[in-house]
Design a protein that fits this description.
The protein is mainly β. The protein is built from no helices and 20 strands. A four-stranded antiparallel sheet has the order 1-2-3-4, with no helix packed on it. Strand 9 and strand 10 form a beta hairpin.
Length: 366
């Protein structure tokens, strides 16, 4: 049974996941999208036929009347057995039907400390968010998980941040080093890819939080500049790059109350309720939890999307636009698709009267 929305005590025992029959079906009249919405590397990526492009890990930012959808870019060959990802793409729309291809806006190598080779650039999932500075000018912050930048040159994934005056970039690294390192989470997990899938949420009071993780969810509060951890100290070299970083006063929180947490956390707020959507289990399904606060405690609510055909991963981005709520995610539905050749899709999210989410109905015009 789905748990009560506002029973906020942390679970000591994993709750039973609801069956599909226990989740209220979405209305029979629902928005149908021409999924995958990103198909072609053309001006109109949904309808203008051209070279296929494989995209994944959507991150969505809404600014005024425009939806900015950022994706990773799968470049693996049809018979490839691993991720091959070098850059991040941007797609924009004013109605969620007509999309514009804005091209590459960031590459893993734009972080001077990142490592890659001909096999892969390790440009993993990311998040982009807007904030106005004291003068009212908007700045855009690009958080991404890439390999490199570790103490003593160890192998492992880091989370970096880059900043731009435009949602289309160019984005530049204001730190000169990662935001999250292996050492920051070593007390909880030891696998080298644990620090992936960053997502940032700015609350109504202006406080900002970074969420991330694989096999473990972590969160930390950010400084108001969005490029430093709260409590982080450092000095600067002659070029203005960080050095002598000290994170001993940074409070990184590990969340252990989410059943089968795998990766891909995404926090948003809708109608006064905080939602944490995440990839659960493996192959991944899409689960979610709710809270009265951006910092939890989180109450598990259930599964809203079952594992998808031909891909073991799901990566969510839930957002509001023009009075409705939507979910961007990746599938393997594009011709030639698979685990390492995914495609971004989009569907409507429907809520029950108590704020719980109905099972997401996947749509396509094909």
């Amino acid at each position: 049974m789905t748990l009560s929305l506002f029973t906020l005590a942390a679970c000591s025992v994993e709750p039973e996941q609801p069956s599909e029959s226990q989740i209220t079906a979405a209305p029979t009249t629902h928005t149908i999208f021409d999924n995958p919405i990103i198909k072609y590397d053309t001006t109109d990526p949904t309808r203008q036929v051209g070279a296929l492009i494989y995209t994944a890990d959507p991150a969505v930012m809404v600014v005024d009347d425009t939806v900015y959808l950022y994706s990773t870019h799968d470049e693996q060959a049809l018979d490839g057995k691993d991720y091959r990802m070098y850059d991040y793409r941007l797609w924009s729309s004013k109605d969620l039907v007509h999309w514009q291809n804005k091209g590459t806006v960031f590459r893993y190598s734009n972080f001077g400390w990142a490592r890659g080779n001909e096999k892969t650039g390790n440009a993993y999932a990311h998040h982009v968010i807007q904030r106005q500075d004291a003068s009212g000018k908007s700045r855009y912050y690009f958080y991404a998980a890439v390999e490199g930048g570790q103490t003593a040159d160890a192998f492992g994934f880091s989370i970096g941040v880059a900043v731009s005056d435009s949602p289309e970039g160019p984005f530049t690294d204001p730190r000169g080093m990662p935001l999250i390192l292996l050492e920051d989470t070593a007390k909880d997990k030891d696998h080298s890819w644990r620090n992936i899938d960053p997502a940032v949420f700015i609350d109504d009071d202006g406080r900002a939080y970074l969420y991330w993780g694989n096999k473990q969810l972590w969160w930390v509060e950010l400084e108001a500049d969005l490029v430093h951890l709260k409590g982080e100290s450092y000095s600067l070299d002659a070029q203005g790059r960080m050095q002598n970083r000290d994170s001993s006063k940074v409070k990184i929180h590990a969340v252990d109350s989410l059943p089968n947490f795998e990766e891909g956390p995404y926090v948003s707020k809708h109608n006064g309720i905080y939602y944490l959507v995440y990839a659960a289990g493996f192959p991944e399904s899409l689960a979610y939890a709710t809270s009265k606060s951006a910092t939890g405690p989180w109450q598990y609510q259930g599964i809203i999307m079952a594992p998808l055909p031909n891909t073991t991963t799901i990566h969510p981005a839930m957002f509001d636009f023009n009075g409705n709520t939507y979910l961007a995610y990746h599938s393997a539905d594009l011709q030639g698709g698979g685990n390492y050749r995914r495609a971004v899709s989009l569907d409507r999210v429907y809520f029950n009267p108590d704020g719980t989410i109905q099972k997401v109905i996947r749509t396509s015009k094909q």
